[in-house]
From TrEMBL:
SMART domains: AAA (SM00382). PROSITE patterns: AAA (PS00674). In the C-terminal section; belongs to the peptidase M41 family. Its cofactor is Zn(2+). It comes from gut metagenome. The lineage of its organism: unclassified sequences, metagenomes, organismal metagenomes. GO terms for molecular function: ATP binding; ATP hydrolysis activity; ATP-dependent peptidase activity; metal ion binding; metallopeptidase activity. GO terms for biological process: cell division; proteolysis. Pfam families: AAA (PF00004). Residues 44-183 form the AAA+ ATPase domain. This is Cell division protein FtsH.
């Protein structure tokens, strides 16, 4: 998994999804003060699934959550787990969670989780193919760590319909957030983010472009 540290991306860099940001404020607060939640006995979701069309900023939003909380961000693509050789994907999942536990509080982000989280029994290689073993290992790891450790697993997909129902059960990806295409106001805000530190003619109207 690739590691990003520090506040390289924060909510200031993400525009056009204000409601989605609000839904993630609690996660940021938990990563900043896990003890506060443990003391009052609150249960924080272990997993957050972001789904929506391609290009809506799911990865950027997950990075911004880590940046806002100032915690390490481990990112990996679902396709990185699926190899020809049986056992490699499951071993990568184990290694990833081991590293995350050593760096908690932190965020693990799995992009294109549908590559590994597809409904079991849908593969060509029978019941024991590599992808199913990897998915089983992911479920085991998510069940095996205490949410109070300060690890949040975030994942993104544009195909929520093909995911194995076991991934969406309580204690796994029990918080699901839809990231929609931005409206006109959102598009204008996105243009303004990208226009920062750049010189434009005074006749440029971002509202019209949006």
């Amino acid at each position: 998994a690739r590691l990003t540290k520090g506040k390289s991306v924060t909510f200031k860099d993400v525009a056009g999804c204000d409601e989605e940001k609000e839904e993630l404020v609690e996660i940021i607060d938990f990563l900043k003060n896990p003890k506060k939640y443990v003391e009052i006995g609150a249960r924080i979701p272990k997993g957050v699934l972001l789904f929506g069309p391609p290009g809506t900023g799911k990865t950027l939003l997950a990075k911004a959550v880590a940046g806002e909380a100032n915690v390490p961000f481990f990112s990996i693509s679902g396709s990185d787990f699926v190899e020809m050789f049986v056992g490699v994907g499951a071993s990568r999942v184990r290694d990833m969670f081991k590293t995350a536990k050593e760096n908690a509080p932190c965020i693990i982000f799995i992009d294109e989780i549908d590559a590994v989280g597809r409904q079991r029994g849908a593969g060509m290689g029978g019941g024991h193919d590599e992808r199913e073993q990897t998915l089983n290992q992911l479920l085991v790891e998510m069940d095996g760590f205490n949410a109070n450790l300060g690890i949040i697993v975030m994942a993104a997909t544009n195909r929520p319909d093909v995911l194995d129902p076991a991934l969406l059960r309580p204690g796994r990806f029990d918080r699901q957030i839809t990231i929609s295409n931005p409206d006109v106001t959102g598009r204008e805000a996105i243009l303004k983010v990208h226009a920062r530190n750049k010189k434009f003619d005074e006749t440029v109207n971002f509202g019209e472009i949006a």
